[in-house]
Amino acid sequence: MTDAPPVIIAEGLTKRFNDFIAVDRLNLRIEKGTVVGFIGPNGAGKSTAIRMLCGLLRPTAGRASVAGFDIAREPEAVRAHIGYMSQKFSLYGDLTCRENLRFFAGIYRVPHRELGERMHFAIAMAGLEGREDTLVRTLAGGWKQRLALGCAILHRPPVLFLDEPTSGVEPEARRRFWDLIHSLAAQSVTILVTTHYMDEAEYCNRIALINAGRLVAIGSPSELRQRNLGGALIELECTPLGGALIVLQQAAEVREVAIFGDKLHVLVRDAASIGQLKPFLEQHGIEVGQSRAISPSLEDVFVQLVLRPDAKERRE
């Protein structure tokens, strides 16, 4: 750790739309070269928070700075020092890869003497050598997203905001995209990324779990997995799965239950409660297969923190 100030700071950052609170007193401190994942359900406030940090939305209350610039007082300076990829693919399909890069280089005021070098880097990073004059609309999703990332970093910003960058992209292309993210972080670029994919959260240095506009937990993947969920977690095979879910939601010893693939993850009050589940389910006509105690995954932590009624914001 260094004594350098955080690159991104948010203190009590809030955004209201009439009576709706989209972001509720968000506190963040993100260090240089860190990859932070914003994880949360649809409507949790992730995209709204990013748009405020990009200087695109004025906060209702609180303050924040990005790369040393206040988002409310100096939004243009903020935008000059960041790269941004939105949820929706933002390049021009009727232009070639080369033409898109030239267009965004002009927007970001890339010096002409550096244009060739930076365009070459972006093309190589996207794996598009030999396709420079291909229309973007004909590219596969993974190539499009890597090209969009190349456009977003043409001006070498110290901070990069990625809003659902791999949504709808095939798994192999997603993995390659994350390789690019980490190569940028290794060059001291600070990256904040939103994602719906829990496996992608494992690639982040830190994870911020967001629900109903509030920060409910923040830490490294290992720190979050080690949280005390307030009971024992078991993996349970049942038939029918949906019926077992409904039955277990009524059991006094069950704190949380959720479907994970073809099994259930059940959070019970304590280890002694595990033996009570099989007879309880069988009394309700549920066939019970194997069961075993498991360590919580990131998805288990997320489900428990988001679903519990007393979820609180964790302040740094």
Summarize the structure.
With 316 residues, the protein is of the alpha/beta class.
Structure overview:
By secondary structure, the protein is of the alpha/beta class. The chain contains 11 helices and 14 strands. Helices cover 33% and strands 28% of the residues. The strands form 3 sheets. Strands 6-7-8-3-9-10 form a 6-stranded mixed β-sheet, sandwiched between helices. Strands 2-1-4-5 form a 4-stranded antiparallel β-sheet. Strand 7, helix 6 (171-185) and strand 8 (190-195) form a beta-alpha-beta unit. The relative contact order is 0.13.
Helix content: 25-40%
Which regions have little confidence, pLDDT < 50, spanning 5+ residues?
A: 311-316
Biggest sheet strand order reads: 6-7-8-3-9-10
Sum up the overall morphology in one term: globular
- Content of β-strand: 25-35%
Structural class computed from helices and strand pairing: alpha/beta
Radius of gyration: 23 Å
Largest beta-sheet details: 6 strands, mixed
Number of strands: 14
Order of helices and strands: EEEHEEHEHHHEHEHEEHEHEEHEH
Cα distance, first to last residue? 17 Å
Number of helices: 11
- Mean pLDDT over the residues: 88
Features of this protein?
33% helix, 316 residues, disordered C terminus, alpha/beta, 28% strand, 11 helices, 14 strands, four-stranded antiparallel sheet, single chain, six-stranded mixed sheet
